[in-house]
Design goal:
By secondary structure, this protein is α/β, with parallel strands linked by helices. The protein contains 17 helices and 20 strands. The chain folds into three domains: 165 residues, FAD/NAD(P)-binding domain (3-Layer(bba) Sandwich); 130 residues, Protoporphyrinogen oxidase, mitochondrial, domain 2 (Polyamine Oxidase, Chain A, domain 2); 115 residues, protoporphyrinogen ix oxidase, domain 3. Strands 8-7-16-17-18-15-19 form a seven-stranded mixed β-sheet. The protein has a five-stranded parallel β-sheet with strand order 10-2-1-14-20, with helices on one face. A three-stranded antiparallel β-sheet has the order 5-9-6. The longest helix is centred in the last third of the chain and has 21 residues. The chain starts with 5 loop residues before the first strand and ends in an 11-residue tail after the last helix. The chain binds flavin-adenine dinucleotide (FAD). The site of flavin-adenine dinucleotide has 36 residues, from helix 1, strand 15, strand 19 and helix 17.
């Protein structure tokens, strides 16, 4: 490395680390050398696309939400605008299992703020998932007094209190469980349903906040452009295209794969970075850690045990993706939609099922279908075969599938998804406080404010911006924002 240039090390080559490298490279005004260090042989972290017998299989994430800033903008900046795909408008319905039967799931439960209030009212009014009593309870939301306590609340307690038990159990929790697993209700409302929680604080009611937002909204909510009407976006050829485009944009960065960073050492000018064998990889003026929080904790422990302890207190969930391929004539139930959610009370071995080949046109060859299920598992889980068989049996029953799958893939993701427990925001504030002691150290990724791909990109963007401000102007955020 050239000693006259500022040296930046980025740990972790998932979407966060790659995006951070991209933002640094495109915005730096000083000469800078950037090294990205990744322990696996390939980049992408949780994002991995496989091609098997003309099927396109996403091992981890398969799309990202459009309404969150970050994802779409990065794809466009990388020249991927012509690769963006959305589900066909005729196949955008989602279903939910109710007493063993698939029922339409209303749009706008997760993010009512991206919907028109009139379409929300009509979908909730006509959904069979709420009884008349449940609908009446939901309609009373504007009259439920806001909670005055400044403390956090679980999602379940918040939703029961404001929207009623039926809305909570029949709509909200099944949706969140499809992402966070069956204990989603015990997670922090402030961290995971920020807009819901802040609507109560600012307007006293979610419906009132919605009405206010829409009367001041400048851009129309209804667009005729297919991409603007879809909640989900993916890329033709899979999300690995985003990883590849990022990698291609980083020609001047040193990308080092197959290299696990074992320890870091703080010194007067920055950070020394070492491999498993104790070999010094580099000296960096600034270090951006885009590794999972527990890994970051183990690396910072020798320089700040308290920070390590705080990072370690962010729990991680594990999940398993089973993907099955069939001839379309093996599946008797029409797969017209994106898939279905499974509430806890249905007692099935999985939480969500995506009809990948209906949702995206490029996932299965003609005459074949691709179905994916998501199961939350424990860290110690090993009995993949038995679980696979029971998931398959349940799918056979619900979707009227005959015969054996022509493709079957099992992709475990251990400690892959940070969970945001009650008072998570206090944990973040204390991590932020600890970081003020370490000039030139920045953290980004799914552990710090949002687990979705756009959240990770935004986190990388913000941390990269602060890192540049530090190197170029000597700006140290001093307790303000030190990670994202
Ligand atoms: C099954 C599953 C499905 C998902 N579906 C969606 C979805 O549909 N839409 C969506 O928006 N989000 C989804 N997510 C969430 C999203 O994919 C992740 O939050 C995001 O990809 C995390 O990116 P990251 O770069 O922060 O972390 P990671 O992808 O975990 O990357 C961290 C990287 O750091 C590397 N690393 C770790 N330790 C070291 C070390 N010591 N030295 C060097 N390198 C190291 C790892 O190998 C890894 O490559 C899903 C997640 C999972 C697990």
């Amino acid at each position: 490395m050239n000693p006259s240039k500022k040296r930046v090390a980025i740990l972790g080559g998932g979407i966060t680390g790659l995006s951070a490298a991209h933002f640094l490279k495109t915005r730096a005004t000083l000469p800078m050398e950037i090294a990205l260090l990744e322990k696996e042989p390939i980049l992408g972290g949780q994002i991995s696309t496989l091609h098997h017998d003309d099927f396109l299989i996403e091992e981890g994430p398969e799309s990202f939400v459009r309404y969150k800033k970050g994802g779409l903008e990065l794809c466009e900046a990388l020249g991927l605008q012509n690769e963006l795909i959305v589900p066909h408008p005729k196949n955008r319905s989602t279903f939910i299992l109710k007493n063993g039967k698939l029922v339409h799931f209303p749009r706008g439960v997760m993010n009512p703020f991206s919907q028109s209030i009139f379409s929300l009212i009509s979908t909730f009014l006509f959904t069979p998932l709420l009884s008349s009593k449940g609908k009446l309870r939901l309609a009373l939301e504007p009259w439920i007094p806001p909670r005055n306590s400044g403390s956090d609340e679980t999602i379940e307690a918040f939703a029961n209190r404001r929207l009623g038990a039926e809305f909570c159990q029949n709509l909200l929790l099944p949706l969140l469980s499809g992402v966070y697993g069956p204990e989603a209700g015990s997670l922090s409302v402030r961290a995971l349903l920020k807009e819901y929680a802040s609507a109560e604080q600012t307007s006293g009611s979610i419906f009132r906040a919605l009405r206010k937002k829409q009367s001041t909204e400048k851009t129309p909510l209804h667009s005729t452009k297919s991409i603007e009407t879809s909640v989900f976006i993916s890329l033709h050829g899979g999300l690995a295209k985003l990883v590849q485009a990022l990698q291609d944009s980083l020609t001047e960065c040193h990308i080092v794969v197959n290299t696990r960073v074992r320890s870091i050492e703080k010194n007067s000018s920055g950070y020394g970075i070492f491999t498993q064998a104790g070999e010094k990889l580099m000296e960096a003026d600034a270090l951006l850690m885009a590794t999972p929080a527990y890994m970051t904790a183990s690396l910072v422990r020798p320089i700040d045990p308290e920070l390590a302890h705080r990072l370690d207190s962010i729990p991680y969930g594990s999940g398993l993706v089973f993907t099955f391929g069939f001839y379309d004539n093996q599946v008797k139930r029409p797969l017209r939609g994106t898939g279905f959610l499974v509430p806890k009370k249905e007692k099935l071995p999985f939480h969500a099922c995506t009809w990948s080949s209906s949702k995206w046109t490029d996932r299965a060859p003609k005459g074949k279908v691709l179905i994916r299920t998501y199961v939350s598992i424990s860290e110690q889980f090993t009995d993949f075969e038995q679980l696979r068989n029971s998931v398959l049996d349940a799918l056979r029953h619900i979707l009227k599938i005959s015969g054996e799958p022509i493709l079957s893939e099992t992709h475990p993701h251990f400690r892959s998804l940070p969970q945001y427990p009650l008072n998570y925001e206090d944990t973040l504030a204390s991590i932020r406080q600890s970081l003020t002691k370490h000039r030139g150290l920045f953290l980004a990724g799914a552990a710090y404010g949002g687990v979705g791909i756009p959240d990770c990109i935004l986190s990388a963007d913000n941390a990269g911006g602060e890192l540049l401000a530090y190197l170029e102007k000597g700006f140290v955020p001093g307790g303000e924002k030190k990670f994202h």
